[in-house]
Design goal:
57% helix, alpha+beta, 219 residues, four-stranded antiparallel beta sheet, 13% strand
Length: 219
């Protein structure tokens, strides 16, 4: 809004002038363009900045800023008024999405896959991270009017669980139970994965174990 008011004022003094507005540590915003404009028109930077301040105030900057001052070698320091800030926030709010966000047209159906964890491995903060990011994406899409299908895909868990069960059988229930009771599921999984990748006989037994597992075998 401030740059929108200042830009035509600067151009009215010289067609190549730009306001160069940026946040300021001493005010809300600062315009540095008067220094460059002074070189273009051959004037004193502070005088040029004062002229810009007067013209901008007449053009509506005085309704946005509660205070405008010339500082240093020719900067314009500006403080936005509380009323102007309230007006901008109120103007941004209307609409289905709020905050001035336009509604998507046409709306689409979007599928968001949240995490896809390996259910046979110990879960960790990375799974929460992908789920939180997924939910943030869902909220953004829904805010602009899209229909969102949420999906938390769990991959091909059969082979992984067959591998774990077969490793448990090889260790024996007591030894496996003791290891798992310590909460070291990751080491248990890695040992099973190593056997699966390096021992063809174990891999065949693990695949057969999947069939038994999925068919409801009592053992």
């Amino acid at each position: 809004m401030i740059e929108g008011i200042l830009a035509p004022v600067f151009r009215s003094v010289h067609p190549d002038a730009v306001p160069a507005v940026r946040p300021s540590q001493k005010a809300d915003f600062q315009a540095d363009g008067a220094l460059a404009l002074a070189r273009l028109v051959g004037g004193n930077p502070r005088d040029v900045a004062a002229k810009i301040s007067d013209l901008a105030t007449q053009a509506g900057l005085g309704e946005v800023c509660e205070k405008i001052e010339v500082a240093g070698p020719g900067f314009l320091n500006m403080w936005v008024s509380a009323q102007a800030m309230a007006d901008m926030m109120a103007a941004a709010r209307p609409g289905p999405a709020g905050l001035g966000i336009p509604v998507a047209s046409p709306a689409q159906r979007v599928v968001v896959d949240y995490g896809g964890p390996n259910a046979a491995k110990q879960m960790h903060v990375g799974h929460l991270r992908s789920t939180i990011i997924g939910d943030a994406i869902v909220r953004l899409l829904e805010a602009v009017g899209h229909e969102v299908v949420r999906e938390n895909h769990i991959g091909d868990w059969g082979a992984n669980f067959g591998m774990l069960v077969e490793h448990l059988v090889d260790l024996g229930e007591d030894a496996a139970g003791n290891q798992l009771a310590l909460g070291d599921l990751e080491a248990f999984y890695q040992a099973a994965r190593t056997s699966y990748e390096q021992d063809p006989d174990f891999a065949d037994r693990a695949r057969r174990r999947v069939v038994l597992l999925q068919s409801g075998d009592a053992e």
